[in-house]
Design brief:
The structure holds 2 protein chains of 2 kinds. Chain A is mainly alpha-helical. Chain A has helices at 2-10, 25-31, 35-59, 68-90, 92-98, 109-117, 124-154, 175-196, and strands spanning 156-157, 160-161. Chain A has a two-stranded antiparallel sheet with strand order 1-2. In chain A, strand 1 and strand 2 form a beta hairpin. Chain B has a single domain, classed as Ammonium transporter fold (Orthogonal Bundle), CATH 1.10.3430. Chain B contains 14 helices and no strands. Classes of the chains: A mainly alpha, B mainly alpha.
Chain lengths: 197, 313
């Protein structure tokens, strides 16, 4: 059980997809305008990661080496379609806010990266916990980034005004602000890591 | 008498120049423009300058303590950054604008890259562009000159951009700085006094300012509003931040090319981008963006304009 827990935990801190592996930055930059969007994107990606990791770990022995990427894509695209249809049916507002970035999870490098680097070499249960950890790590990173951006760029958190009279800095609502926030957070986490080690 | 023939390694001649001395000389050269700004816009301008400088120095000191690096407070570079940032702001901004801008300039524009000499972009302009993107309505509301209240007036360039038929200020008024604008950019006369001092003392070279201003003037003259060769090039030189930018910000040692040829290219690039933004861009003024973009191009310019080493093909 401890092994599984470690597989889960490594995605959150030691191999956090956003801050350590620096994967999946495109959706991170694009959707982290508000916390709601961040959580929605995180949950969608987590579901796809879980599903694709498990299925790919199951069928890894039947996939020919040379066409493995198309095979992964087919599996991933299936789960993305499920997510997209569900989202359209139950929360169309979120779907509109995330826009093209929901179908683009198909080519999200976290999902593809875990399939390539982990799931095709590991057991089903390990892959399940790996996918869960990576998904939660991605979601937490998105919440952190979008929380900072929503507060500084919009003066709000989860659509509630926090400080009256606070003048939001528009730059944090723009892509350049996203790059700034991600860069500073990356630097901060590296600093913490170097202090420890 | 063994002491008489002491032999030491070169260099044998020293002069008194140092980074610190040069920086304070640049500060001295900027003083006339600041005084002119305060005379033209009144005490609010002095408040903005003081807040910008003090918060730049405090940020520098604080970061020096936090990172346990050598405290570089007295080398004057943070002072210049704060001063230039304040010069690039309208006189009647809220008090926190120069503070936030200075903190951003020093922390993000300079120290995060490793401090003086390591930064890619001119820190003061980084701060200004950050403020411009974040709180545009404060940065583009300009006070009317010689009236200490908050009547906003369009800058000559903004009027030109909107195609408004504004009675054109006389060149003399523009030269003395009797127009709406940022604190340090309006008084061309005072800026030229400082620039001349720096040029004569050899602290800056003529290449960047010359090619910057010349390119902007030529392009705005050729691509005039009523067909070719009808542009009001003198207005383009005398308004906006061109003089301040060309002499004091584009010539920053850290972020501009090293060789003469490189500096000419750098200045021409700045002029080209400035003219493009002024004529067709979304903003009335493009000097700060032009300098920042060319800052990014500086390493590649340096790479292709390296001086030939004597004796090498």
């Amino acid at each position: 059980m401890k092994v599984y827990f470690q597989e889960f935990l490594k995605g959150i801190i030691k191999e956090n997809p956003t801050f350590v592996l620096a994967l999946g930055l495109c959706p991170t930059l694009a959707v982290s305008v508000s916390v709601i969007n961040g959580i929605g994107m995180g949950i969608a990606a987590t579901f796809v990661l879980l599903g694709s990791n498990v299925i790919i770990a199951m069928i890894k022995n039947f996939i020919p080496e040379r066409i493995r990427i198309p095979c992964f894509i087919v599996v991933i695209a299936t789960f993305v379609t499920i997510v997209e249809m569900t989202m359209k049916a139950y929360s169309p507002a979120l779907n509109r806010a995330l826009g093209i970035y929901v179908p683009l999870i198909v080519v999200n490098c976290i999902v593809l990266g875990r399939a390539e680097a982990y799931a095709q070499k590991s057991s089903v249960v390990n892959s399940f916990f790996d996918g869960l950890g990576m998904g939660v790590g991605f979601t937490l990173a998105l919440i952190l980034i979008s929380g900072i951006r929503e507060f500084l760029g919009n003066g709000q958190l989860m659509n509630h005004t926090i400080i009256k009279g606070f003048q939001p800095a528009f730059i944090f609502g723009m892509p350049s602000g996203a790059l700034l926030v991600i860069g500073l957070l990356l630097g901060f986490f590296n600093l913490v890591k170097n202090r420890k080690g | 008498m063994p002491d008489k023939f002491t032999v030491t390694a070169s260099p044998h001649l020293h002069n008194k120049e140092s980074t610190r001395r040069i920086m304070w000389m640049v500060v001295a050269a900027l003083v006339p423009a600041g005084i002119a700004g305060v005379v033209i816009f009144g005490w609010p301008a002095l408040r903005v300058i003081a807040l910008g400088v003090v918060s730049a120095l405090s940020t520098e000191a604080l970061l020096g303590v936090l990172t346990r690096k050598k405290i570089t407070l007295l080398d004057g570079s943070a002072f210049i950054t704060g001063l230039l940032l304040a010069y690039n702001l309208p006189p009647n901004v809220p008090f926190w604008i120069p503070i936030v801008g200075s903190i951003f300039s020093i922390a993000i524009g300079k120290q995060i890259f490793g401090g003086l000499g390591q930064n890619i972009f001119n820190p003061a302009l980084v701060g200004r562009v950050f403020l411009m993107a974040s709180w545009p309505r404060y940065i583009t509301a300009f006070a009317k000159p010689l009236s200490c209240d908050a009547i906003t007036a369009a800058t000559p360039l903004a009027a030109l951009k909107e195609g408004r038929v504004l009675e054109r200020l006389s060149n003399w008024d523009l030269f003395l700085g009797l127009r709406g604008g940022c604190i340090g950019e309006v008084c061309i006369a005072a800026l030229l006094v400082g620039a001349l001092f720096l040029l004569i003392r050899g602290y800056i070279t003529w290449q960047i300012p010359f090619s910057f201003i010349f390119t902007t003037a030529i392009l705005t003259y050729i691509l005039g509003p009523r067909g070719l060769f009808t542009g009001d090039w003198l207005l383009h030189i005398l308004s906006g931040g061109l003089i301040l930018g060309a002499f004091f910000m584009a010539t920053d040692y850290v972020t501009s090319p090293l060789t003469s040829l490189g500096q000419l290219i750098f200045g021409a690039g700045c002029g080209l981008i400035t003219a493009i933004i002024r004529l067709w861009g979304g903003y009335p003024e493009g000097v700060s963006y032009a300098i920042l973009m060319m800052n990014a191009a500086t390493p590649i310019i340096d790479r292709y304009t390296r001086n030939r080493v004597y004796g090498r093909r």
